[in-house]
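One thing: mind reviewing this one?
=====
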Amino acid sequence: MADSRGPRVADADVDMVDDVQADQPNLQGDADMSLSDGHDPEIIKSEEDKKAYRMVTLPNGLITLLIYDPEIAASGDDEDDDEEEEEDEEIESEESDEEMSVAEEAGDSGGSKSSKKGKGGKGTEGGKAKGRKGASKGGKGGDDNEGEDSDWETASEEEEGEGEDGGFEGKEGEKAKVADTRGKEGKEGAAGVEKTGGEGKATGKRKKVGGIRLGGGGAGRKGKVGEKSGAKGAVGGEGDEEVEEGSEEEMESGEEEEYDDEDEEGDSDEEDEEDDEDDDDQPGAAKKLAAAAMCVGVGSFLDPPDALGLAHFLEHMLFMGSVKFPDENEYDSFLRRHGGGSNAFTETEFTCYHFDVAHKYLHPALDRFAQFFVAPLAKAEAMEREVQAVDSEFNISLQSDVCRVQQLQCFTCAQPDHPFHKFSWGNRKSLIDDPAALGVDMRERLLQLYSRFYTAGAMRLVVVGGEPLDTLESWVRQLFSPIPPGGSGIHPLVHQLPPPVTFSARSQDSEMLGPDQEDAGKGEVLGGGCDGSAAVAGGNGAAAAGGGAVGGRKGPLAAVLAGSRAASEVSTAATAAGGAGKGSEACRKGTAGGMQVGKTGRSAEKWGGGKVEGEEGERGERAGAAEGGDGGQWRGVWEGGRLYEVASVKEQQQVSLMWSLPCLHGEYESKPHDYISHLIGHEGSGSLLSLLKGKGWATELAAGVGESGYEKSSLAFVFTVTVTLSDDGLKHALDVVGTVFQYITMLRQAPPQHWVFEELQAIAVMDLRFAEEESPDEYAVRLAGNMFYYPKRHVIAGDYIHDKWDPDRIAYLLSLLSPHSVRLDLLTHSFDHSREGILKEPWFGVPYTTTQVPASLLDQWASDTWLNPDLCMPPRNEFIPTDFSLRPSKTTTTAAAPTAATTAAATAAAASTAPLALNTAPVTAATTTAAATTSAPVLGSSPGGDTCAVSSSQPLNGSAPSVPRVVLEDGRCKVWHKQDDVFLTPRLNAHFALSSPSACDSARSAALTELAVKLIEDSLNETLYLASVAKLDTVMSVQGFKIEVRITGFSHKLPALAARIFRHISTFQAAADRFSALKEERCRAYRNALLKPLKHSAYLRLLLLRTPAWTIPDKLSALSACEVEDLNAFLKSLFSWVHMEVLIHGNATEADALSLAAAVTDTLPVPAPPLLEIPAERCLQLPRGASLLVESPVGNPAEENSAVEVYYQACQDLGRASIRDRSLVDLLEQVMSEPLFDTLRTKEQLGYRVDCGTRLTHGVFGFCIRVQSAEYGPDYLQGRVDSFLKTFRDNLSALPETDFRAHRAALQVLKMRKDHTLGDETHRYWEQIWEGSSLFNSRQLEAVALCNITLAELCAWFDRHVSMTPVSDDVDSFTEGPAVENGGGNGEAGGEAGNGEANEGDGRGKVHARRALVHVWGAGKWKERGEVSSEEGEKDAGKVEKGGKKGGKDGKDGKEGAAITSKDGGWREGQVVVEVGDIEKEKASLELFPLVKLVAV
């Protein structure tokens, strides 16, 4: 059928975005009218939220939420429009005939210009994430992570396509910047624990996996208000894996930190905030980025059966250039030059694209972004490369248990034609091989998908900026109006399924979810959600009733397509479900209390209860209610009562119970599933987990509905209970399942308890009322998704509110959690691969068996009389705060105390009458006035003549320079305190570091310390869980000689919790049964620690650099020989001498801090004679000019991915004296990351993960490059990295001055980035204290130092610390010289002098760099590693040459690089190969860096 979108591509021209399309002659007039209409009605928000909101609908149907943020307005300079225009003109002039012809071709084929992939490719981390952002959420770059968990992070790495967030966290914070994935900070499974690097802070939402949002429980506490409690939960999304990994790796995680302060706290990877290229662009006060997100209502559920993964592939392709901006790298390069980054992910029902950028560049960034949806290119050669990227992303996830289990759940869906029954990742087989065998033209398929579904009505846009709302609206109308009309929200699936069952029509706002129904002439529609709404087709105005006669209600699912295709498609959809028109009289009745679920006009067939008839290509008629009167029952996605036993990659065992429920999007005001998950996932006394732990069967339990599209969709909500089993629990797996059903039976027998709902409501009110700020891009992403599901007034608040107490809904859902409808997944490493009847899932090759649970056992589980008396309702939560007043500061006479309820019940009651007790004042025009920018003193001029408008004393948060100060210091304790004077919130963060010389003096001590901390947490679990539900989170971890305890949350009950925790620690003795269970878990974690290549490489690098460093095998062996008596004896030694360092930051006065510290220190033992120094781990100094190579096979024998880590050791951190080196290493990362990714990942397609980043390893700076590949071995990868570095050095010298200044300014913006939350600020301070420093203004000092760093100086720094080519000794001049206020160093003169003959290569110089190489070989490559020959090198050379040609001008580079590596890489000459078993011997020959006491001055 012809597509009306064709003209948009065929007629596209570079000026199209500025012109009004011929078919929209009144566009500007409409815009003018809207601009004078004022603001939208009030949108409920936090009372502290100072932003202004406006929602508008463009004539083409695009619904947009505009957000004015005064802090963004105050953080940027005036735009340099001339520069922007000049830049755009230059880009436009480069447009080629070839690109225009591609556009015309796309136009002829339906118009859709297919898009580019998105630099990062699907983004292993995020939903199907394209991953580009330069890093992952947490840190400057977050790589997907594999690496050392950060000490202050719960190690949420994004491995294998797991979660989106990323952040390569090192135990102390190592976060590798990844050019490849950007993560949106996920919400850690209900936990709320702040993660500081990769994931950012835990917020409850599950992470996205590998581009395809798999959810991801997260490392947080489980079963919390509404969120899926805990671990991954069956399908979780790598979150779960990450959680586990986090725990496992806590142990090994590297004591290093990608020290970029920027990365802290999961702030968005946006970090590389590049500001301006001109003089005006120097940073001033705290910076905050502008952002935008676009969600398109089509996802992997709409993948055609002959092109599985197409939606994800399309997401990648949209980044590959547009008619207006044809350069494939233009979008990402522009964002990076101006301080931002981008990413994307593909969900089941929508696809989300987002970016952030320095404030003054929002308009040109939106221009580039809009072209994704107006006229993207779909070059055939780019498609070939992107398919490889998608395939690489898939290969990374092949050994991920979370991804494997989820795909098995999709494959075993009861209905073969169900959207679940798909392979949404996509790989070469599904996107190239299989379609080719069927004669399918993939490019044509791609264009069809884009042309048909990427229409304005199906899109939701959010723009966050510092401009007035009128300005933002005018930009959006100008740039996004050319998007063709059509669609309405999430595209309905009526062509595939009968309408889903829902409770009630969603309360919806017509402008929120679609234009007015009467406006049929514009081809827009209402609905598109789970409950459906009437559809209005194009200009025909034909309404399609989803469930028989409409009867005053909107039909469940109706097709809405614009243009000529609408009528024919809607006509079949209009054939009422419910068989022969019986829908109008059928009602659904719930089994609990006769609750009526259906309404007149709804389809009466059960889910899957009728066959879908009709020929291929038809919508298919829905069968009517089943004969026999059971048409009111819900049928799920899977066959009930069936057990699947699944082989696990990791050594673990879990049993998951899963039920598919009706869509609950419309129940967001009551959230009945949250009530159930809160109770089943509870961990207090009388809970299900408490009973299972008491029997020795379980260690963890998670319950609830996850956030991924497979768990929350318009088709079904999936409720999962996942129990992590002990070895004994595996033997009693069915008994564990039976115990779960006993608890559910107990809940059914007692009516729903209103007091439980009141507690949830009180917490929700508190949560929204004092909601902590998200980074702008995360906020935009969340709200863009929310716009599909909530009415306008609840776009912000919908995730939080619990306004309606609905016991009937709760009872009905409990009735659906039946043994006869449950799916059971038993994931185990003890899977018997020799048994008969083993099946294999076709895409991941997952071995599994399936059996029907005996009917007698199902009946027993369903029995109402089979109950355990130890199970009961949880106790009331004593930790819910009731006092939200602010403590008086020295500068105020009275506390700034927000009105607070005196009890939780009172708070809940207030909320019931005035929802959320929020600020309900309408947004007024006055709120859109930008705040005046605080002027900063001018400190001097940079070599380029720029004025540096930033001071080292200037605070990041725009207020007076207040930093922590020591309020107590004695022989056993040092207390730092800072009362919050920035966020003015009733929150408090208390961080404790306990140093003990016994904690890490041997492998045995290290293992016992780690186990002791796990046992202490376990013994406190019932208390800590209650506190975590009330938003008081506690995290305990071990790093070397330090035990860290972090308690964060509302200040009211925090001191009491802290005192209780430390009293317990001081008297703790382990019980034998819990010792055995936790020892088993810890040993399993050690065995699982090195299964992934990048984790393995980070471990080996730290093993080489760090002392003391105990190997995992040594710790495993030592722990295996210990008994409970050994641990209890060790505890006396561990705490016999302890020094504690404390930071108390937030809503507490100095007196409060001293009181809290006294309560804690009083629990410590009387100090022994003082030690000369507090023990610490140290870093070894690599030989200058040499390369040490460590090689090892990956820990998982089935893992085919290899990894290379190239580490360059720079210099020691001397505090203020090292500010210039800090700035230079960060600047190198800023400049290198984009070309590295573009060359090795995008053009050469070496692998999905390519990144570079800074490292701070026990006070020593380093720079690291990492590549992971399933296709190439480490030798070849190493050669390509070396080749890149040589080319990069040449290009660096030739870098235009304007580009260099843009990078420098972008990094300054990054370093001056505003803290988003109190936790961000705390983390920044704690990082310094942890390192023994008090340089709390280090970021400001580095920003100042950047003012006069020259390109010549950066080149010289590279020559000294990275180049393996002999260079002149003159490079030494660059890092010598005193540190001064403006950054120190030798300034321009020294910079110029050092460049001399550095690159002559005439043998007169020497190699200064210190390098360590780590090669982790995939299973297959390891076997062949000794046979790397010139023949294989030539084969690889051919591949690179071919890839280079596809990349255009890079063909030549490909040939040259291939030649360099053709003979075993060539680079091996001069390497010192160190066997893993000989690392300690090699370390004995290395010197330690000297101990340095860091000081602020």
